[in-house]
Write a structure and sequence with these properties.
Elements (H helix, E strand, L loop, with lengths): L2 E5 L14 E5 H7 L4 H4 L4 H34 L9 H11 L5 H6 L14 E2 L2 E7 L8 E3 L5 E4 L5 E2 L2 E2 L3 E6 L6 E8 L5 E5 L4 E5 L3 E5 L4 E7 L8 E2 L1
Parallel strand pairs: 3-15
Antiparallel strand pairs: 1-2, 4-14, 5-6, 7-8, 9-10, 9-13, 10-11, 11-12
């Protein structure tokens, strides 16, 4: 059944697009609620109304925990005589709006703090590329590989390093002949036989450990460069 995003407090009656004001609803329920408040729509179903309100409060708990942790961090650094400056998210948003910048994590970082627009302060250069770091984990603790029914199919070895390589290492493979002839760079999945599997951006194949060269040990993350969002000619990349 297709689901719609419904505003608990209708936008036509002052509601916002915050997470705490959004729920998933089926299309018939969404149409039946219309612009009514949730208290009006579920007035004859108090148990369901209480359940919805309880779910809406959960994101606020996460926000409260984050704010408490941030406040404690600032107070701890202040005790250590470390210079600390804090600004609100509203200040960052206002700086971006004043300079005509779109939404971006990079631009959020550049627009943080006090920028005196009346004095002529402005962000005129941004990075052309940004480093994207993705968490990949450090492997699995599972000792067996199950089949599609969940029953154990084969037992995995307890040793993670085989022929000098561990699953997740970044390697360069030079294949001398065959279908995959050439030089390839990707992540490796090791086997006890020495015929490791390498996964690149476009393909996946097996290669002998003798044709593999280590580039970087697996540290639980992947790294790549990505282009920053395009801006107008008013803001040129660095």
């Amino acid at each position: 059944m297709p689901l719609d995003i419904e505003h608990v407090h209708p936008r036509s009656r002052g509601g916002s697009d915050r997470v705490t004001n959004l729920v998933l609803a089926c299309a018939p329920c969404n149409q039946a609620k219309g612009t009514a408040r949730i208290e009006e729509f579920l007035s004859d179903r108090p148990a369901r109304l209480e359940k919805v309100i309880t779910q809406l409060r959960r994101p606020l708990q996460d926000v409260a925990a984050m704010n408490s942790t941030r406040l404690q961090l600032v107070e701890t650094l202040a005790i250590q005589a470390v210079p600390v400056h804090t600004w609100s998210g509203g200040r960052t948003r206002w700086n971006k709006v004043a300079m005509g910048l779109p939404k971006s994590h990079t631009l959020d970082a550049l627009a943080t703090g006090v920028i005196d627009h009346e004095r002529g302060d402005a962000i005129v250069r941004i990075p052309a590329q940004v480093l994207v770091v993705t968490s990949t984990g450090r492997g699995s603790y599972a000792r067996t590989t199950p089949d599609r029914f969940g029953f154990p199919r084969l037992q995995r070895p307890r040793r993670k390093v085989h022929h000098g390589y561990a699953t997740g290492d970044l390697v360069a493979a030079v294949v001398p002949r065959g279908k995959w002839v050439g030089r390839w760079v990707g992540r490796i999945a090791v086997r006890t036989s020495g015929q490791h599997r390498i996964t690149t951006l476009t393909s996946r194949f097996d290669v002998s450990h003798r044709n593999v060269q280590l580039l970087q040990r697996a540290d639980g993350y992947t790294y790549r460069f990505a282009g920053e969002i395009r801006l107008s000619e008013q803001h040129r990349p660095a």
